[in-house]
């Protein structure tokens, strides 16, 4: 399927590995030129090289997207983008009594205020052109809280509220904002979450993964390729009537009719 976005320009944050990388790959396959970001330069450059094999232009910016200086660095290079995919690492797990004000501020900065700052910087250009797409990578925890990820539950719920209103303010200008909610996907993040289970319960990594998969109707983890393809569709010409939605990719893990 031709997504109708060949020649557009996208900024994909936190894209050297995992879900962000999956999104960048699918956009490159659709013919989109890319600015990609992550903190570590080595993995970022290697992903950039793979993306160039699709024949698109790729600029890699090694910076911490959750810091003001990092964002300024990325935005200076990003220029006039048509598509924004926001993403960053997720907050650490714990229990409700673990977290102090500083922990919440850090999570809010990374997973709520960073995407908001990026949207505030880039939406005016999209509105001016009468076309734009934003996909925020959030989490299933927005719809169904994950008890040990209280920082994530809180920060991402805040972002979701902001997007719900903002998406409806910019849709009339052809600018479409939605959120993409991963359930468990086979990435480094899943390995680190499963490593926590291994440590807490004294089981093997294979047992932890098998137990988690057994609780999912699809009986497996999602892949970054599947996730990226959904993201690319949400950035396509055909997603113009999808406004302020929260698209859940969780293999059916959340038991809900709608
Ligand atoms: P991942 O495999 O660990 O990859 C994270 C990517 O983000 C890497 O490229 C990493 O590169 C980059 N990154 C991390 N912090 C960054 C920062 N401050 N600035 C710029 N780049 C940064 O993680 P993932 O599984 O793709 O997860 C992506 C997001 O989805 C996370 O917020 C995660 O919490 C959420 N999520 C994931 C799952 C899942 O099962 N995988 C489920 C629900 C939610 P550097 O380390 O080099 O910066």
Automatic annotation (TrEMBL):
One Pfam family of this chain: adh_short
Leader peptide range in chain numbering: none
PANTHER family found in the cross-reference section: 3-OXOACYL-(ACYL-CARRIER-PROTEIN) REDUCTASE, NADPH-DEPENDENT REDUCTASE BACG
Family, similarity comment: Belongs to the short-chain dehydrogenases/reductases (SDR) family.
Bilayer-crossing regions: none
Protein name: 3-oxoacyl-ACP reductase
CDD domains per record: BKR_like_SDR_like
């Amino acid at each position: 399927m031709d997504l109708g976005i060949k020649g557009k320009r996208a900024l994909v944050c936190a894209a050297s590995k995992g879900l962000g990388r999956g999104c960048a790959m699918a956009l490159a396959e659709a013919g989109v030129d890319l600015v990609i970001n992550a903190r570590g330069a080595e993995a970022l450059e290697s992903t950039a090289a793979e993306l160039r094999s699709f024949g698109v232009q790729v600029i890699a910016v090694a910076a911490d997207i959750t810091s003001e200086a990092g964002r300024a660095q990325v935005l200076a290079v990003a220029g006039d983008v048509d598509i924004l995919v926001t993403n960053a690492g997720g907050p650490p797990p714990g229990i409700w009594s673990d977290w102090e004000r500083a922990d919440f501020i850090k999570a809010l900065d990374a997973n709520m205020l960073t995407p908001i700052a990026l949207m505030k910087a880039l939406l005016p250009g999209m509105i001016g052109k009468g076309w734009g797409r934003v996909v925020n990578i959030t989490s299933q925890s927005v719809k169904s809280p994950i008890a040990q990820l209280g920082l994530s539950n809180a920060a991402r719920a805040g972002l979701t509220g902001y997007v719900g209103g903002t998406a409806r303010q910019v849709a009339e200008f052809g600018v479409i904002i939605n959120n993409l909610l991963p359930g468990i996907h086979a990435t480094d993040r899943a390995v680190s979450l499963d490593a926590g289970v291994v440590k807490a319960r004294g089981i093997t990594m294979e047992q932890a993964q098998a137990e988690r998969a057994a609780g999912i109707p699809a009986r497996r983890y999602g892949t970054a390729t599947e996730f990226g393809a959904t993201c690319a569709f949400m950035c396509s010409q055909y997603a113009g009537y999808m406004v302020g939605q929260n698209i859940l990719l969780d293999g059916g893990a959340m038991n809900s009719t709608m």
